[in-house]
């Protein structure tokens, strides 16, 4: 049996996220498994590098699957391109060591949250960025970001029920970059909890709008409890950019 690693790019606008759901066929995992299973004549389980929220996107999502099929990586790639929906593209297929596991071997992930600013809206980025007419205080947002870098208990920045699993995670870097009419919040961490990236962005946006102070982000983090002071950022602005492995 062969183990294949795939890199997936998708527009998640109409999907419920990566993970296959019992009550819906609108998942990225489900769409890919359906195509691969029909291709190979066997039931294929695709292992993803982690969950992604409904409505979010990915540039380089990593997954793997095992199969007895003798089709070459190139033929598998072409088959996926032909039969997957147009908003899901498998960018590469390669045979890897049988021990490779897309989730367990992941060491770091990078998410990017895109914000367009100003009065004018653009139809071509409407599905992929959050639009803000308010002027954001980027200096204070960067000050707030400093409190989140490092290893912390992120219970205040997840929708997980308290005690369901460890909420200690490490944010390696958190950069806020302005380029013309676009602001990118780039978060690199060892792993992300349910809704963690969107809640971190939500807190930074509240600081940028002067609704809370930068120091309040540290207080919220230390409280280890979800609060209404941190709204969840809209999903459409969030994209998984990269996943790193040491395997």
From TrEMBL:
GO molecular function: RNA binding; tRNA pseudouridine(38-40) synthase activity
UniProt domain Pseudouridine synthase I TruA alpha/beta: residue ranges: 7-103, 144-246
Top EC class for this record: isomerase
Binding, substrate: 111
Pfam families: PseudoU_synth_1
Family matches, as Gene3D superfamilies: Pseudouridine synthase I, catalytic domain, C-terminal subdomain (3.30.70.660), Pseudouridine synthase I, catalytic domain, N-terminal subdomain (3.30.70.580)
Record function comment: Formation of pseudouridine at positions 38, 39 and 40 in the anticodon stem and loop of transfer RNAs.
Protein name (database record): tRNA pseudouridine synthase A
Species the sequence originates in: Ruminiclostridium papyrosolvens DSM 2782
Lineage: Bacteria, Bacillati, Bacillota, Clostridia, Eubacteriales
Gene name tied to this protein: truA
């Amino acid at each position: 049996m062969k183990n294949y690693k795939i890199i997936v790019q998708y527009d998640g606008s109409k999907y419920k996220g990566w993970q296959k759901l019992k009550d819906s066929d609108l998942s990225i995992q489900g769409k890919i498994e359906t195509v691969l299973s029909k291709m190979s004549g066997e039931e294929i389980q695709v292992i993803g590098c982690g969950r992604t929220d409904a409505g979010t996107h990915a540039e380089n999502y990593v997954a793997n699957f095992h199969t007895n099929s003798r089709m070459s990586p190139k033929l598998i790639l072409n088959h996926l391109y032909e039969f997957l929906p147009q908003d899901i593209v498998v960018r590469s297929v390669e045979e890897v060591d049988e021990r490779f596991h897309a989730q367990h071997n992941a060491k770091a992930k990078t998410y990017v949250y895109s914000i367009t600013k100003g009065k004018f809206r653009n139809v071509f980025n409407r599905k992929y960025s959050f639009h803000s007419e308010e002027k954001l205080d980027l200096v204070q947002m960067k000050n707030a970001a400093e409190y989140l870098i490092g290893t912390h208990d992120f219970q205040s920045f997840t929708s997980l029920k308290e005690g369901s699993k460890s909420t200690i995670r490490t944010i390696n870097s958190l950069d806020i970059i302005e380029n013309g009419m676009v602001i990118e919040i780039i978060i690199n961490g060892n792993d992300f909890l349910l809704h963690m990236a969107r809640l971190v962005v939500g807190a930074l946006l509240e600081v940028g709008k002067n609704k809370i102070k930068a120091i309040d982000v540290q207080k919220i983090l230390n409280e280890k409890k979800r609060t209404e002071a941190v709204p969840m950022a809209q999903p459409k602005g969030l994209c998984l950019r990269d996943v790193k492995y040491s395997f």
